[in-house]
Design brief:
9 helices; globular; about 290 residues; alpha/beta
Length: about 290
């Protein structure tokens, strides 16, 4: 158990251990349940306890912390989750990135902000604890491990930089938990067309959260950061929130429908997006 816990904390598969504690002041039972994302191993001594323990273990798996559940008649179930600290990587160091980095830090992500302009990765611009890095976007993710604990947000200043980042990410064998791309429907459509032209399968494109965030009518950089952070939380917790811009805009569906000769079109949603020049109106400096 100790070995598997260390592996999980070091970037391996998240895991949770569940014990049946017979008495609040007494020793644990010798039985235990190991809970992973796809299966369980071991037993707590009965089918009913195993079912309750598996549910509690999944909660601990999501939180990476301790979860408990009192049992009828006394005793309790105790679950300890182990998972690596989630890492939020933000490509682009503009105004939205400043706000999102602060939120990510408050949400217990390890935050890294990258840009190809030195003035936009000055540590003084960001919350304490936020790491910054000067990069060439074509090689932006060099040395960054892609895993189920990695969350990527692309808020660069230009369409070509987004594509550089997307090509790099989609070429990786391992997949991050989240890849979000800011942009209007027009710009997201252009990115998707470029990816399709490069031979990226639609199934891979469908994994992208684009347009990024929830449709809450966000306009300012701080509001846009909140809309993005809310979607990050939903993915982290394994929920499907209503109002995701990706689901409302259905950019890939529209491309597929157009290719089939079907008419498709609806008013653009409000929310996290760029104007036609590739920069959010409040983020014209970056």
């Amino acid at each position: 158990m100790a070995r598997e816990a260390l592996e999980a904390l070091g970037g391996g598969e998240p895991i949770a251990f569940v014990r049946h504690v017979e008495d609040a002041e007494g020793p644990e039972s010798s039985d235990g349940l190991i809970v992973r994302s796809g299966d369980t191993e071991g037993t707590l001594g009965s089918t009913a306890l195993d079912r309750a323990g598996a549910a509690l273990g999944r909660r601990a798996l999501a939180s990476g912390g301790v979860e408990t559940q009192p049992l009828p008649g006394g005793g309790l179930l105790f679950a300890q989750g182990y998972r690596p600290t989630d890492r939020l990587v933000i490509a682009g160091g503009g105004h939205i990135a400043v706000e999102l980095a602060a939120l990510g830090d408050a949400l217990d992500f390890r935050v890294l902000v990258m840009d190809d302009r030195p003035e936009f990765v000055e540590p003084a611009r960001f919350a304490p604890g936020v790491e910054t890095r000067l990069v060439d976007f074509a090689e932006a993710f060099e040395g960054i491990e892609m895993s189920a604990s990695t969350y990527l947000v692309l808020v660069t200043r230009g369409h070509e930089h987004d594509l550089d980042c997307l090509r790099r990410v989609l070429a990786e064998r391992a997949r991050p938990a989240y890849v979000g791309l800011i942009g209007s429907r027009r710009r997201v459509r252009a990115a998707f067309l470029a990816l399709r032209g490069a031979g990226v399968p639609d199934a891979e494109i469908a994994r992208l959260h684009a347009p990024i965030g929830l449709d809450i009518g966000a306009e300012t950089p701080a509001e846009i950061a909140v809309a993005i952070a809310a979607e990050l939380i939903a993915v982290r917790r394994g929920t499907t929130p209503p109002g995701a811009l990706r689901d409302r805009e259905r950019v890939l569906d529209r491309l597929q429908a157009a290719a089939s000769g079907e008419a498709a079109g609806s008013p653009a949603a409000s929310g996290p997006s760029r104007d036609d020049d590739g920069a959010h109106p409040s983020d014209s400096a970056g």
